[in-house]
Design a protein that fits this description.
The chain is an alpha/beta fold. About 45% of the residues lie in helices and about 10% in strands.
């Protein structure tokens, strides 16, 4: 693309031009990730994957990648993205899954993008095996919580997650259940942002309202702009007519028109002093003084770990004979 947009001041620093090429989008469901993923697939240099770690089906792994995963695990299973054995392996070893994708990466694809949705993997696994990788770029996706909640309730009711018009479906929503639902997702976002922060790993943000719910070409443009600090520029922008996105399922502009009991829902939130929770973004991690102390200890612990393993590796290598050298006294290679 000939020009780029700015990084929008999301609080991250340029990280150089080498290494990262796996772009992981983290978010709850119903934040427009399907639309963005489908749109990114129109860019020739981007290998845009859907939900690799979906519990029911790995939508994005190829048969060769599943075979490679089986080989590396030393476990034989049918290379099907619906095979329960394959799904268990994918869920338990996300880092190894990404290694398999890397091993079979198509040379014309400059990045592989994929998404991980709340509850697909534990926060600990995401932190250790995805965020902890030096070759990943982390992008958090957000949308106004009440809109996410209503959209999810409709999708769960219909068991349909895209390509279905839900405009005329009016559902009942419960304020107490909404607040409980939101608290769990606030914790998830904060924990994963903290995992980045503790590792001194920059992370990016896209929002449904500002970046995703717009023309597909503009959403792609904003996504690609986030990659500039990593030295990833010059992506080919497709024509709008050739971009395959998804249409908005609920066409009601007013949030009150999307549910059957909005006045009661709003009144209950106001009574609890929590109406702002419906519209304020999911929380972000805000480090305090104690977090800074812990990050110092965390960094020291990682440095000691690397030092010990480095020394251990040198000791092992020194104790091992050089297999390319002739055996002592033989006068020739054996």
């Amino acid at each position: 693309m000939g020009s780029t947009v700015s990084n929008k001041g999301h609080g991250t620093e340029p990280v150089g031009t080498s290494g990262p090429w796996l772009v992981c989008m983290l978010g709850v469901g119903r934040v427009g990730s399907n639309h963005l993923t489908r749109s990114l697939g129109s860019v020739p240099e981007i290998d845009s994957r859907a939900e690799i770690f979906n519990k029911a089906r790995s939508y994005a792994l190829t048969r060769p990648e599943l075979k490679e995963l089986s080989r590396r695990l030393g476990k034989r299973f049918k290379p099907s993205n619906r095979n329960p054995k394959a799904l268990r392996a994918i869920k338990r070893r996300p880092g190894l899954v990404l290694d398999c994708i890397a091993a079979l990466r198509q040379p014309q694809k400059r990045i592989v993008s994929f998404k991980v949705i709340f509850s697909q993997l534990t926060a600990g696994l995401i932190a250790r095996q995805i965020i902890g990788r030096p070759d990943t770029i982390i992008v958090f996706l957000r949308r106004r919580p009440v809109e996410v909640y209503i959209s999810q309730m409709k999708a769960w009711r219909l068991q349909e997650w895209h390509s279905v018009d839900t405009t005329d479906l009016k559902i009942q929503v419960d304020a107490d259940e909404f607040l409980k639902w939101r608290r769990a997702r606030d914790i998830w976002y904060r924990r994963l942002e903290a995992a980045c922060w503790y590792r001194n790993k920059p992370f990016q943000h896209l929002t449904y309202e500002d970046d995703i719910d717009r023309r597909q070409s503009e959403a792609i443009y904003r996504f690609c702009a986030l990659l500039e600090p990593y030295g990833l520029t010059g992506f080919t922008m497709p024509d709008d007519a050739k971009i395959k996105g998804l249409f908005r399922q609920d066409r009601n502009e007013d949030i009150a028109d999307r549910v059957a009991n909005w006045p009661d829902f709003q009144r209950r939130l106001e009574t609890m002093g929590c109406l702002d929770k419906a519209f304020e973004p999911f929380q972000r991690f805000q480090p305090n003084a104690w977090d800074h102390v812990l990050r110092g200890l965390f960094g020291l612990g990682r440095a000691i770990h690397r030092l010990l393993f480095s020394r251990s590796d040198r000791t092992v290598r020194a104790a091992m004979p050089d297999e390319s050298a002739p055996a002592l006294g033989s006068g020739r290679n054996s």
